[in-house]
Amino acid sequence: MSAAERNPGDLMAAAGDVAAAAVGLASEAVQPISFGQLGPKPSVDKDAKRNLDLLLDVTIPISVEVGRAQMSLDEVLNLVPGSVVALDKKSEEPVDLRVNGKLIARGEVVLVDDSYGLRITQIVDAAGRIESLR
User: DSSP assignment of 15-52, as one string?
Assistant: First the structure.
């Protein structure tokens, strides 16, 4: 004989005790959640500045391109001090400022305290940068 057949009342009492214990346990385990005050959304400028701050000490190559020339390997091997290499730009044309190999600006070469410098005269827009890749 099973336990239910012997004393059905005992089984019902045991089931009631289990249900009461489950309700008591659930009420002790559940705790109310409290959320903090929502503040104003951080501005995009702050996030962008924080991201930019992470990159401020990263070194990137910057070059000023005065002009270009195509030469055969034989011509390169024959270069000696005093050789002149003809470039594809005229002397009055602006030179290109390249950052990491990409055209960013154009300007003119200036002399600053016995050193060469670049006075930027034009920042290249997105369309100009795309065009320079072709």
Answer: HHHHHHHHHHHHHHH-----PPPP-PPPPHHHHHHHHH
pTM of the prediction? 0.52
pLDDT (tens digit, 9 = 90+) per residue, 116-129?
Answer: 999 999 999 877 77
Q: Among all chains, which residue has been given the structure tokens 């827009």?
A: 125
* Burial label, 103 (beta-carbon count in 10 A; 0-12, 13-18, 19+): middle
CATH of span 61-133: 2.30.330.10
**Domain extents for the chain?**
61-133
Question: What residue has token string 């390169």?
Answer: 76
CA nearest 98: which of 65, 53, 128, 58? 65
